[in-house]
Protein backbone atom coordinates (compact mmCIF):
# COMPACT_ATOMS: atom_id res chain seq x y z
CA UNK A 1 0.00 0.00 0.00
CA UNK A 2 1.12 3.56 -0.59
CA UNK A 3 1.18 6.02 2.28
CA UNK A 4 -0.25 9.53 1.84
CA UNK A 5 1.95 12.59 2.21
CA UNK A 6 0.65 15.60 4.18
CA UNK A 7 -0.64 17.13 0.95
CA UNK A 8 -2.57 13.94 0.19
CA UNK A 9 -0.25 12.62 -2.53
CA UNK A 10 0.72 8.94 -2.24
CA UNK A 11 4.27 8.08 -1.22
CA UNK A 12 6.02 5.11 -2.78
CA UNK A 13 8.01 2.82 -0.51
CA UNK A 14 10.62 0.14 -1.23
CA UNK A 15 10.20 -3.60 -0.90
CA UNK A 16 12.46 -4.74 1.95
CA UNK A 17 14.53 -7.85 1.12
CA UNK A 18 16.06 -9.78 4.01
CA UNK A 19 19.39 -11.39 3.11
CA UNK A 20 18.65 -14.94 4.24
CA UNK A 21 21.53 -17.39 4.71
CA UNK A 22 24.63 -15.53 3.44
CA UNK A 23 26.43 -18.74 2.46
CA UNK A 24 23.55 -19.67 0.14
CA UNK A 25 22.30 -18.13 -3.06
CA UNK A 26 20.11 -15.47 -1.38
CA UNK A 27 22.50 -12.52 -1.80
CA UNK A 28 23.23 -13.50 -5.40
CA UNK A 29 19.61 -13.86 -6.54
CA UNK A 30 18.66 -10.60 -4.78
CA UNK A 31 21.44 -8.77 -6.61
CA UNK A 32 20.49 -10.35 -9.96
CA UNK A 33 16.85 -9.45 -9.32
CA UNK A 34 17.83 -5.82 -8.73
CA UNK A 35 19.67 -5.81 -12.08
CA UNK A 36 16.40 -6.79 -13.79
CA UNK A 37 13.97 -4.71 -11.72
CA UNK A 38 15.99 -1.57 -10.93
CA UNK A 39 13.92 0.67 -13.17
CA UNK A 40 10.63 -0.96 -12.23
CA UNK A 41 10.45 -1.52 -8.47
CA UNK A 42 12.15 0.30 -5.58
CA UNK A 43 13.82 -2.13 -3.19
CA UNK A 44 16.08 -2.19 -0.14
CA UNK A 45 18.37 -5.10 0.73
CA UNK A 46 19.08 -5.85 4.41
CA UNK A 47 22.39 -7.54 5.10
CA UNK A 48 26.17 -7.37 4.96
CA UNK A 49 27.23 -5.76 1.64
CA UNK A 50 30.36 -7.95 1.62
CA UNK A 51 28.09 -10.90 0.80
CA UNK A 52 26.81 -9.41 -2.48
CA UNK A 53 28.37 -10.34 -5.84
CA UNK A 54 31.19 -7.98 -6.72
CA UNK A 55 29.88 -7.20 -10.18
CA UNK A 56 26.60 -5.69 -8.96
CA UNK A 57 26.74 -2.05 -7.78
CA UNK A 58 25.35 -1.36 -4.34
CA UNK A 59 25.15 1.66 -2.08
CA UNK A 60 24.67 1.91 1.66
CA UNK A 61 21.73 3.96 2.92
CA UNK A 62 20.75 4.86 6.46
CA UNK A 63 17.07 5.58 5.83
CA UNK A 64 14.70 3.41 3.76
CA UNK A 65 13.41 6.55 2.02
CA UNK A 66 16.85 7.01 0.44
CA UNK A 67 16.35 3.79 -1.50
CA UNK A 68 13.93 5.46 -3.90
CA UNK A 69 16.61 7.79 -5.27
CA UNK A 70 19.40 5.19 -5.20
CA UNK A 71 17.69 2.13 -6.66
CA UNK A 72 17.92 3.05 -10.36
CA UNK A 73 21.74 3.13 -10.22
CA UNK A 74 22.68 0.73 -7.39
CA UNK A 75 21.12 -1.79 -5.04
CA UNK A 76 20.31 0.13 -1.85
CA UNK A 77 21.65 -1.65 1.24
CA UNK A 78 20.74 -1.16 4.89
CA UNK A 79 24.04 -2.56 6.09
CA UNK A 80 24.61 -4.93 9.00
CA UNK A 81 28.04 -6.30 9.93
CA UNK A 82 27.91 -10.10 10.09
CA UNK A 83 31.46 -10.46 11.39
CA UNK A 84 33.54 -13.26 9.83
CA UNK A 85 33.74 -13.45 6.02
CA UNK A 86 31.29 -15.75 4.31
CA UNK A 87 32.32 -19.06 2.73
CA UNK A 88 29.87 -19.97 -0.05
CA UNK A 89 28.14 -23.26 0.64
CA UNK A 90 29.16 -23.41 4.31
CA UNK A 91 26.89 -21.87 6.93
CA UNK A 92 28.66 -20.40 9.96
CA UNK A 93 27.33 -20.22 13.50
CA UNK A 94 28.66 -16.66 13.79
CA UNK A 95 26.27 -15.49 11.05
CA UNK A 96 23.09 -16.98 12.52
CA UNK A 97 22.06 -14.07 14.71
CA UNK A 98 22.61 -11.63 11.87
CA UNK A 99 20.24 -13.61 9.65
CA UNK A 100 17.58 -13.56 12.36
CA UNK A 101 18.12 -9.86 13.01
CA UNK A 102 17.63 -8.99 9.34
CA UNK A 103 14.28 -10.80 9.26
CA UNK A 104 13.17 -8.90 12.35
CA UNK A 105 14.43 -5.62 10.87
CA UNK A 106 12.45 -6.26 7.69
CA UNK A 107 9.28 -6.91 9.67
CA UNK A 108 9.79 -3.67 11.60
CA UNK A 109 10.28 -1.68 8.39
CA UNK A 110 7.03 -3.00 6.94
CA UNK A 111 5.01 -2.65 10.12
CA UNK A 112 6.25 0.92 10.62
CA UNK A 113 5.27 1.86 7.08
CA UNK A 114 8.86 2.49 5.92
CA UNK A 115 8.65 -0.42 3.45
CA UNK A 116 5.66 -1.62 1.46
CA UNK A 117 6.32 -5.36 1.77
CA UNK A 118 8.88 -7.92 2.90
CA UNK A 119 10.53 -10.40 0.57
CA UNK A 120 12.65 -12.96 2.41
CA UNK A 121 15.58 -14.88 0.96
CA UNK A 122 15.93 -18.53 2.01
CA UNK A 123 17.31 -19.42 5.43
CA UNK A 124 19.01 -22.57 6.68
CA UNK A 125 17.03 -23.60 9.76
CA UNK A 126 19.66 -25.94 11.21
CA UNK A 127 22.32 -23.22 10.94
CA UNK A 128 20.09 -20.80 12.84
CA UNK A 129 19.30 -23.38 15.51
CA UNK A 130 22.94 -24.37 15.95
CA UNK A 131 24.28 -20.83 15.86
CA UNK A 132 21.61 -18.83 17.67
CA UNK A 133 19.22 -21.28 19.31
CA UNK A 134 16.50 -20.49 16.77
CA UNK A 135 13.40 -21.97 18.39
CA UNK A 136 10.93 -21.84 15.49
CA UNK A 137 10.18 -24.66 13.02
CA UNK A 138 10.80 -22.30 10.10
CA UNK A 139 10.77 -18.85 8.60
CA UNK A 140 7.00 -18.54 8.49
CA UNK A 141 6.51 -19.48 12.13
CA UNK A 142 9.07 -16.87 13.19
CA UNK A 143 7.25 -14.20 11.18
CA UNK A 144 3.97 -15.23 12.82
CA UNK A 145 5.59 -14.93 16.26
CA UNK A 146 6.95 -11.47 15.43
CA UNK A 147 3.48 -10.44 14.26
CA UNK A 148 1.70 -11.97 17.25
CA UNK A 149 -0.65 -14.15 15.22
CA UNK A 150 -1.46 -17.77 16.01
CA UNK A 151 -2.07 -19.16 12.52
CA UNK A 152 -0.81 -18.26 9.10
CA UNK A 153 -1.23 -19.92 5.73
CA UNK A 154 1.41 -20.73 3.12
CA UNK A 155 0.27 -20.06 -0.42
CA UNK A 156 2.34 -20.94 -3.48
CA UNK A 157 1.40 -18.58 -6.29
CA UNK A 158 2.21 -18.10 -9.94
CA UNK A 159 0.36 -16.81 -12.99
CA UNK A 160 -0.95 -20.35 -13.58
CA UNK A 161 -1.98 -21.49 -10.12
CA UNK A 162 -2.44 -20.48 -6.50
CA UNK A 163 -2.42 -23.39 -4.08
CA UNK A 164 -2.46 -23.75 -0.29
CA UNK A 165 -1.40 -26.88 1.64
CA UNK A 166 -3.57 -27.34 4.74
CA UNK A 167 -0.72 -29.25 6.42
CA UNK A 168 2.89 -28.61 5.57
CA UNK A 169 6.16 -30.13 6.80
CA UNK A 170 4.98 -33.27 8.55
CA UNK A 171 5.21 -36.99 7.68
CA UNK A 172 2.40 -38.27 5.50
CA UNK A 173 1.40 -40.65 8.29
CA UNK A 174 0.67 -37.64 10.52
CA UNK A 175 -1.60 -35.83 8.06
CA UNK A 176 -4.91 -37.52 9.06
CA UNK A 177 -4.24 -36.70 12.72
CA UNK A 178 -3.11 -33.10 12.17
CA UNK A 179 -5.88 -32.30 9.71
CA UNK A 180 -8.83 -31.15 11.81
CA UNK A 181 -12.15 -29.46 11.00
CA UNK A 182 -11.16 -26.35 12.96
CA UNK A 183 -7.74 -26.14 11.32
CA UNK A 184 -9.06 -26.67 7.79
CA UNK A 185 -11.86 -24.15 8.31
CA UNK A 186 -9.36 -21.53 9.52
CA UNK A 187 -7.02 -22.27 6.59
CA UNK A 188 -9.84 -21.72 4.09
CA UNK A 189 -11.00 -18.56 5.86
CA UNK A 190 -7.48 -17.07 5.89
CA UNK A 191 -7.10 -17.95 2.21
CA UNK A 192 -10.38 -16.22 1.35
CA UNK A 193 -9.38 -13.13 3.34
CA UNK A 194 -5.94 -13.02 1.72
CA UNK A 195 -7.32 -13.26 -1.80
CA UNK A 196 -9.84 -10.54 -1.01
CA UNK A 197 -7.59 -8.13 0.86
CA UNK A 198 -4.23 -8.64 -0.87
CA UNK A 199 -5.22 -9.76 -4.37
CA UNK A 200 -8.36 -7.66 -4.75
CA UNK A 201 -10.67 -10.59 -5.53
CA UNK A 202 -14.08 -9.55 -4.19
CA UNK A 203 -15.54 -13.06 -3.87
CA UNK A 204 -12.77 -15.66 -4.07
CA UNK A 205 -13.54 -19.07 -5.53
CA UNK A 206 -11.90 -21.83 -3.49
CA UNK A 207 -11.55 -25.45 -4.60
CA UNK A 208 -10.83 -27.96 -1.81
CA UNK A 209 -9.27 -31.34 -2.47
CA UNK A 210 -10.13 -34.58 -0.79
CA UNK A 211 -7.68 -36.32 1.50
CA UNK A 212 -8.00 -39.75 -0.07
CA UNK A 213 -7.69 -40.95 -3.68
CA UNK A 214 -10.79 -40.01 -5.72
CA UNK A 215 -11.90 -37.91 -2.71
CA UNK A 216 -12.73 -41.16 -0.93
CA UNK A 217 -14.99 -42.47 -3.73
CA UNK A 218 -18.10 -42.56 -1.57
CA UNK A 219 -16.31 -44.16 1.36
CA UNK A 220 -14.64 -46.94 -0.63
CA UNK A 221 -11.19 -45.31 -0.22
CA UNK A 222 -11.59 -43.44 3.06
CA UNK A 223 -14.26 -41.77 5.16
CA UNK A 224 -12.87 -38.34 6.03
CA UNK A 225 -14.59 -36.72 3.06
CA UNK A 226 -18.01 -38.07 4.07
CA UNK A 227 -17.51 -37.73 7.82
CA UNK A 228 -16.41 -34.10 8.03
CA UNK A 229 -14.76 -32.50 4.97
CA UNK A 230 -17.93 -32.31 2.86
CA UNK A 231 -20.08 -31.08 5.79
CA UNK A 232 -17.44 -28.43 6.57
CA UNK A 233 -17.53 -27.18 2.99
CA UNK A 234 -21.31 -27.13 3.17
CA UNK A 235 -21.14 -24.90 6.25
CA UNK A 236 -18.78 -22.49 4.50
CA UNK A 237 -21.09 -22.33 1.50
CA UNK A 238 -24.06 -21.67 3.79
CA UNK A 239 -22.07 -18.78 5.26
CA UNK A 240 -21.84 -17.25 1.80
CA UNK A 241 -18.41 -18.41 0.63
CA UNK A 242 -17.77 -19.79 -2.87
CA UNK A 243 -16.14 -23.08 -1.85
CA UNK A 244 -16.35 -26.35 -3.79
CA UNK A 245 -15.24 -29.86 -2.93
CA UNK A 246 -14.00 -32.19 -1.74
CA UNK A 247 -12.59 -32.82 -5.20
CA UNK A 248 -10.32 -35.63 -6.42
CA UNK A 249 -6.83 -34.12 -6.33
CA UNK A 250 -5.79 -35.86 -9.55
CA UNK A 251 -8.35 -33.93 -11.62
CA UNK A 252 -8.04 -30.49 -9.97
CA UNK A 253 -5.03 -29.06 -11.74
CA UNK A 254 -5.52 -29.35 -15.51
CA UNK A 255 -6.19 -26.09 -17.36
CA UNK A 256 -9.98 -26.30 -17.51
CA UNK A 257 -10.22 -27.14 -13.80
CA UNK A 258 -7.89 -24.29 -12.81
CA UNK A 259 -10.11 -21.82 -14.66
CA UNK A 260 -12.92 -22.57 -12.21
CA UNK A 261 -11.20 -21.35 -9.03
CA UNK A 262 -8.93 -18.59 -7.71
CA UNK A 263 -7.04 -20.85 -5.30
CA UNK A 264 -6.95 -24.53 -4.44
CA UNK A 265 -6.65 -25.81 -0.88
CA UNK A 266 -4.94 -29.20 -0.75
CA UNK A 267 -4.65 -31.49 2.24
CA UNK A 268 -0.90 -32.01 2.43
CA UNK A 269 2.43 -30.72 1.18
CA UNK A 270 3.06 -32.76 -1.96
CA UNK A 271 -0.58 -32.73 -3.04
CA UNK A 272 -0.22 -28.93 -3.28
CA UNK A 273 3.37 -28.38 -4.33
CA UNK A 274 3.76 -31.01 -7.05
CA UNK A 275 1.21 -29.31 -9.35
CA UNK A 276 2.63 -25.80 -9.08
CA UNK A 277 6.23 -26.93 -9.37
CA UNK A 278 5.31 -28.96 -12.44
CA UNK A 279 3.36 -26.12 -14.04
CA UNK A 280 5.66 -23.20 -13.21
CA UNK A 281 8.79 -24.37 -11.41
CA UNK A 282 10.89 -21.21 -11.80
CA UNK A 283 8.16 -18.62 -11.22
CA UNK A 284 6.43 -19.98 -8.12
CA UNK A 285 6.33 -17.58 -5.18
CA UNK A 286 5.75 -18.38 -1.52
CA UNK A 287 3.19 -15.98 0.00
CA UNK A 288 2.31 -15.94 3.70
CA UNK A 289 -1.36 -15.14 4.34
CA UNK A 290 -2.69 -14.15 7.75
CA UNK A 291 0.12 -11.74 8.67
CA UNK A 292 -0.62 -8.03 9.24
CA UNK A 293 1.86 -7.20 6.46
CA UNK A 294 2.83 -8.50 3.03
CA UNK A 295 5.47 -11.24 2.90
CA UNK A 296 6.70 -13.19 -0.11
CA UNK A 297 9.68 -15.45 -0.70
CA UNK A 298 11.19 -17.30 -3.65
CA UNK A 299 10.11 -20.92 -3.80
CA UNK A 300 13.56 -22.45 -3.40
CA UNK A 301 16.15 -23.10 -0.73
CA UNK A 302 19.69 -21.99 0.00
CA UNK A 303 21.22 -24.18 -2.76
CA UNK A 304 24.59 -24.51 -1.03
CA UNK A 305 25.84 -26.72 -3.85
CA UNK A 306 25.88 -23.83 -6.35
CA UNK A 307 26.35 -20.85 -4.02
CA UNK A 308 29.03 -18.38 -5.07
CA UNK A 309 29.39 -19.86 -8.56
CA UNK A 310 27.18 -17.47 -10.51
CA UNK A 311 24.82 -20.32 -11.45
CA UNK A 312 21.73 -19.41 -9.42
CA UNK A 313 18.54 -18.66 -11.35
CA UNK A 314 17.01 -15.41 -10.00
CA UNK A 315 13.60 -15.91 -11.65
CA UNK A 316 11.72 -16.94 -8.49
CA UNK A 317 13.25 -14.03 -6.54
CA UNK A 318 12.29 -11.63 -9.34
CA UNK A 319 8.72 -12.90 -9.26
CA UNK A 320 8.65 -12.76 -5.44
CA UNK A 321 9.73 -9.10 -5.47
CA UNK A 322 7.25 -8.26 -8.22
CA UNK A 323 4.38 -9.91 -6.35
CA UNK A 324 5.41 -8.27 -3.06
CA UNK A 325 5.39 -4.89 -4.78
CA UNK A 326 1.98 -5.50 -6.37
CA UNK A 327 0.48 -6.74 -3.12
CA UNK A 328 2.03 -3.91 -1.13
CA UNK A 329 0.69 -1.32 -3.55
CA UNK A 330 -2.74 -2.90 -3.89
CA UNK A 331 -2.34 -3.95 -7.54
CA UNK A 332 -1.99 -7.73 -7.23
CA UNK A 333 -5.38 -8.66 -8.74
Q: How would you sum up this structure, described in words?
A:
- The two termini are 13 Å apart.
- The protein contains eleven helices and 14 strands.
- Helix 1 (26-37) links the parallel strand 3 (15-18) and strand 4 (43-47).
- A twelve-stranded mixed β-sheet has the order 5-6-4-3-7-14-13-8-9-12-10-11, sandwiched between helices. It has a two-stranded antiparallel ribbon with strand order 1-2.
- Residues 1-10 have low confidence and may be disordered.
- Helix 1 (26-37) crosses helix 11 (315-328) and helix 3 (96-112) crosses helix 4 (125-132).
- The chain has 333 residues and is of the alpha/beta class.
- Its main location: cytoplasm.
- One of its GO terms (biological process) is pyridoxine biosynthetic process.
- It is an enzyme of class 1 (oxidoreductase).
- Keywords: Cobalt, Cytoplasm, Magnesium, Metal-binding, NAD, NADP, Oxidoreductase, Pyridoxine biosynthesis, Zinc.
